[in-house]
Amino acid sequence: MNTKTLEFGSFFQQPENAAYKTHDIAFKNQALFYNGRHAVKYLIDGIMSMHTVNRIWIPEYYCQHVSHWLKTCYNTIKTYPVDPNNQPKGVINIPEAKDHDIVLINNFWGTANCSINTLGKTLITIEDHSHGWLSNACLNSAADYCFASLRKSLPIPLGGMAWSNTHTLPKITYNTEADTFKTIWDTTAKAMTQKADFLKAKHSSAKKEVFLELINTAELAMHNHHAIEALPPEHESIIAQWLNFDPLYYKKQHETLLKTLVKPEMHPQWCAAEGTNFGWIYHFETYDHLTRFKNYLIANKVYPSLLWPDNPENYGYYLNLHIDFRYNEAHIAHLANILNNAVL
Question: Please, which domain of life does this record's source organism belong to (predicted)?
Fold first, then answer.
């Protein structure tokens, strides 16, 4: 195995033409978007067109980019405490909520169980499955509405989806002439292609900075753009083509292999208990502990994602190692060797 350009993590490269594992799950009442933020804004705007909403409640511990983006879009947002480590058994309580308030629930790593104590009020729930795509909690959500950022799990430049197991989706039109996200799509697609070439050793290491700059440019543009743009048919068809791809098939295989190859003291306690629906996730109580481990991984070309920066410190720090379809058994064995030589 050539590990010269083997890297774990970061954004998806352009996938190779291959026969990937698929599923036959069909989501009803679905709508596709450029990203998850557009999907949740579509749901919120639709709910607001039908009800007088006093507050929008979002988790106190949540993706910092989405949180900031939503607070820019709406001035009625409040946060409520959550317990990611105990989510399957946890019940959300928001005594201050009023009738027709919107409560955004996050499916932390696929272990969620949408359980909310309404205290006799009529609350409207939206569940975020971006980091639990295709988990049981995602497929069987009891929330009024759901959404997901698909690009977290599927190798596409952009993509988001809204759906509901219980309601008809709102009827809203979008700007069909704006092309900001067409440019963001093209920029991301270019970065994905360049990364694929880099990993095949077609480029010098200097080229890595080029595709990283491209992806950063695309991300910044998304952060600063708040209007929903309609998907053109050519982009919608690409997203739709990947909807039947089964990323959990590969993650679960790789998790099983890691549990066999990685010494027990290096097993993430949380991940081992719940099973993989997103990645191989460690939890750290202190930032110093997190930083030491993260720096060791990066030195070995493992680029984990921190879920998420800029959150209250009392929640600790979740560090995700990518074990998705991009890797084979030899790659996972190499990752296991890196982990076995680490110190938690």
Answer: Bacteria
Distance from C-alpha of 8 to C-alpha of 59, rounded to nearest angstrom: 29
Q: Count the neighbouring beta carbons within 10 Å of the beta carbon of residue 302.
A: 20
Amino acid at 143: A
CB 280 within 8 A of CB 323: yes
Whether residue 212 contacts residue 7, with contact meaning beta carbons closer than 8 Å, is answered with no
Question: Residue 209 CA to chain centroid, in angstroms?
Answer: 24
How far is it between the farthest Cα atoms of the chain?
Answer: 62
Strand duo 160-163 + 31-33: pairing: antiparallel
Phi, psi of 328 (to 5 degrees): -110, -175
Q: By three-state DSSP, how is residue 92 classified? A: strand
- Mean predicted confidence (pLDDT) in 42-51: 95
The CA distances from residue 142 to 136, 137, 194, 279, in Å, are 11, 9, 41, 24
The residues that bridge with 245 in the sheet, in sequence order, are: 22
DSSP 2-49: --SS--EESSPPPPPS----B-----SS-EEESSHHHHHHHHHHHHHH
